[in-house]
Amino acid sequence: MALLQLSGIEAAYGASQALFGVDLEVAEGEVVALMGRNGMGKTTTIRVACGMLPARAGRIAFDGQDITKLPSHKVARLGVGLVPEGRRCFAPLTVEENLVAAARPGHWDFEAVSKLFPRLAERRDQRAASLSGGEQQMLAIGRALMTNPRLLILDEATEGLAPVVRQEIWAAIGKLKAETGLAILVVDKSLKELAKVADRAVILERGQTVWTGGIDTLEREVTDRYLGV
Ligand code: ATP
């Protein structure tokens, strides 16, 4: 059974419809890449999955439970940890305060997050506002982990970061997969990095799921058609 299942999702911003039929599944322990060119509906799909934007049609289930109409704080409580586009930490709080504020009981505590991102431990007492972009991203991922989610959703977690910092983020995602078997839904522009870590890909085109399958079965023709510029 899928941990997260979106079927026939439609959604709109006011009168402007953005999703026209999104189907997406993430199984327990699976890493799924949500792909598609700019503006095709990836972030909107994530917002609907997290209860931040209502679905106009379709159904969302988490661990078999219908969550289609559930508000975002309840979806979070069920075990969906979101790392939103553009990070969003509490700037005036320190690294440790940011992490502790998000904490819910489970494997992930300050110690465990520090092991994954040693830089956060080094910056423990620094305010989030004073961190580099990469460190803020690590903090955003750490915050989501501190909620001890069953599914982690990463929206453009490497965007705008220096290559060396990107590598650190990808390494952490690889570790999460290998060592914890956490289910992950990831949006990113780097097909090369996604191919290393993801099991399956779901491709959106104009708000619709147009391709889904093993990421290692993605053929050139498909990437050219749906991901090429
Ligand atoms: P990107 O990679 O650029 O973030 P995306 O695949 O995540 O793209 P979305 O951000 O989900 O795409 O956008 C899907 C569609 O919805 C686009 O046509 C976009 O212009 C529109 N849209 C997104 N956010 C809003 C908003 N707040 N109000 C109105 N329309 C929006």
Nutshell version of this structure?
The protein is α/β, with parallel strands linked by helices. It has nine helices and ten strands.
Walk me through this protein's architecture.
There is one protein chain. This protein is of the alpha/beta class and 229 residues long. The protein has a single domain (2-226), classed as Rossmann fold (3-Layer(aba) Sandwich). The protein has 9 helices and 10 strands. The protein has helices at 42-49, 72-78, 95-102, 110-116, 118-122, 133-146, 163-180, 191-197, 220-226, and strands at 2-13, 16-27, 31-35, 57-62, 65-66, 80-83, 151-155, 183-187, 200-205, 208-214. A 6-stranded mixed sheet has the order 6-7-8-3-9-10, sandwiched between helices. It has a 4-stranded antiparallel sheet with strand order 2-1-4-5, covered by helices on one side. Strand 7, helix 7 (163-180) and strand 8 form a beta-alpha-beta unit. Helix 3 (95-102) runs parallel beside helix 6. The N and C termini lie far apart (35 Å). The model has no long low-confidence stretch (mean pLDDT 96). GO terms for molecular function: ATP binding; ATP hydrolysis activity; branched-chain amino acid transmembrane transporter activity. This is ABC transporter ATP-binding protein. It holds the Pfam family ABC_tran.
CATH fold-level label: Rossmann fold
The coarse overall form would be globular
Helix content: 25-40%
Largest sheet report? 6 strands, mixed
Poorly predicted regions are none
Instruction: Determine the strand fraction and express it as a percent band.
Output: 25-35%
Report the bound ligands by name, code or SMILES.
Answer: adenosine-5'-triphosphate
For the largest beta sheet, what order do the strands appear in spatially? 6-7-8-3-9-10
Domain ABC transporter: 4-229
Family: Belongs to the ABC transporter superfamily.
Keywords: Amino-acid transport, ATP-binding, Nucleotide-binding, Transport
InterPro entries: AAA+_ATPase (IPR003593), ABC_transporter-like_ATP-bd (IPR003439), ABC_transporter-like_CS (IPR017871), BCAA_Transport_ATP-bd_LivF (IPR052156), P-loop_NTPase (IPR027417)
